[in-house]
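Dissemination and training. As part of the outreach component of the grant, students in the summer workshop were shown how a complex can be specified as a set of sequence lines and then modelled as a single object. The example used during the hands-on session is reproduced here so that future cohorts can follow it. Participants entered these lines:
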Amino acid sequence: MKKEAVLMKQDNPRFFPVLIKYIRVRGSALWSSIKRHKISYLFIAPFCLLFLVFYLIPVITSIGLSFTYYNILEKPSFIGWQNYINLFFADEVFLTAVKNTFLFAVITGPIGYFMALFIAWMINDLKPKVRAFLTLIFYAPTISGQAFIVWKYIFSSDSYGLANGWLMKLGIIYNAKPWFEDSKYIMPILIIVVLWMSMGTGFLSFIAGLQNVDRSLYEAGYVDGIKNRFQELWFITLPAMKEQLMFGAVMTITASFAIHDQLAALAGFPSVNYAAHTVVSHLIDYGTIRFEMGYASAIATLLFMVMILCNKLVQFLLRKVGS
Amino acid sequence: MVLFQHKKRKKPNHSRGGDFVSILILLLFGSFMALPLVLAISNSLKPLEELFVFPPRFIVRNPTLDNFHDVFVLMVGSWVPFSRYIFNTVFITVIGTVGHLLIASLCAFALAKHKFPGRKLIFAIIVTALMFSTHVTAIPNYLIMSKIGWLDSYLALIVPAIAKPLGLFLMKQFMEQIPDSLLEAGRIDGASEFTVFLKIGMPQVKPAWLTLIIFSFQDLWNLQGSTYIYSEELKTLPYALSQISAGGISRAGATAAVTVIMMIVPITIFIISQSNIIETMASSGIKE
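and obtained this result:
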């Protein structure tokens, strides 16, 4: 306390010497603490170095490059907000992409999230073997890589495709429909496919979280007058697994704003009338085909900002669980 | 309802009617999830004429392995042999996953069990990094790869995967549960910190290993990597699949076969490790 009191007095002639001494004392304390923990820094060094080079620096670089014109051949030249202005006022395809991305994110994000939670919750009561089997069934589409290609066969545009063949046999349609070539059908079909693959990392986390809820809480809830499984879910189970809910939300948001791969494989890239063009598709178009790196970086930066904002919003909402 | 654990039931608030409805919903959703994969397997076994019948059949009538045979034959000739794509993907996946497990665990151990200045800041950054989609970092990563000359080499695919923030995050959270007294006992016996990590810490977090392995495997196994890799002989299996399926109708059988090859491996690994995770989780249920 005494030291601070001395520091407060600006007119004290010993102000600077004391300040320097203060910094030196604290600094050397920190330094000796760092030296004492040398081994800890050695442990984290390999990961942190790679993380810095391949994750942190790229994000920062991306923000920086977004204010430049850069085509790889010439040095980047600073152009201020021009990329962002062009994106919003001169690039109609980008606006389509934004619309599609939000449509995908708003529909598949929440539905996928609640479906994962709901299913994890329902299989939690089952016998361990049945639970393990169902976990596999629900998680399999997510891990089977490019198995989503099978949807291309289901919605193939000739009459050999499952949807066309069966609908024609039943007499509901008379000609084979070109599902992935008609912008009317592209979106709904792709939403189904994305939902099919939406039992992501969050799903496993929910299962683990549900199993670790303290059983005695349920007994206590019963005594306190909890009547059915939904009250139990809202007042006991969900509050006890808030951490998993947060984690699941982060994973879902990041994934649902980054949808592209399935869409490109099924609907083509670029898709008919840009019906399945998302922000990530636009980013890939400019980044790896047109090599307009500055412009692509501006898209990446916007995407990143929206993801962070959404995460903050959802985390705020999740704090209200159980109240 | 034989499926439920009625006798030892700990949850008094569940009615039988509700159980019935939930089974019904699970069956419905379960079929939606499972049927396309069943179709994928069924398709891969269909002879060509069965892929093109009207009306289409869901289940194969005369199963054959011809499609799998075709995959290997199709890619012979001026192209790189198909086995090369398999080798590339297996190589990248195995090295990347092992590296990720070791390096992320080492860092997670220090973050969870050592009290050094800066650890909270580092962990906060890692948690934020969970929101970095690979697409956001792709362009600068490409520039960095070209600067350090890693374009068109395995390194460009393996090394970034080693520092995936998700694995570190999960591992650190699991490692918080290791009792400090256990580690302290090892240190008193004079073991080096690395030995304490490897011989005492790591065996305690086996479920987390498996989790890291699954996630890392899943990412690398499905990596196309065609932005970083130009040489045909370094390209991956998912890339080959996308090439084959771009071949259209004449390649329908081969596409179905590669799809099955691609999905069988991660699903098998998940089956093996999932039972392990559930077992370990069940036995470590009660926390103090």
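Chain A has a mean pLDDT of 84. Students were then asked to discuss how this feature might be tested experimentally.
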